[in-house]
Known about the structure:
Oligomer: single chain
Number of helices: 6
Number of strands: 5
Amino acid sequence: MKNTLLLFALLFLLGSTSFAQTANKDSIQVLSIAQFEKLATKKKSKIIDVRTPEEVAEGHLADATTVNFLSPDFASQVASLNKKGTYLLYCRSGSRTRKAADALQKMGFKNVYMLEGGITAWKEAGKAIEK
């Protein structure tokens, strides 16, 4: 009986570990400001601001393309993007970025990254924004 319970416990742990590795494989990488800046300089990288037009009007990162995540046509707007490209997403603090990044990943985008802390952290670090 003890051996059977031990076997089931071992199988459960192995199954849990396998599931955790699969879940992590599909997660979106969160970048520090320094990592985000470095990746933004790469030719194939595109910065995507997923905030509303009103928020963007208050300031945005240089060379950012706006694709409002809250817009009903968000999916159709990003559908025209190259799924093999590298996309650096940000919002105000990171919540919408996570949802937008997850949506892109479900649509088949492979190289999706998000800025840790969003534009709020960017400004707090003294980084430049454009209006």
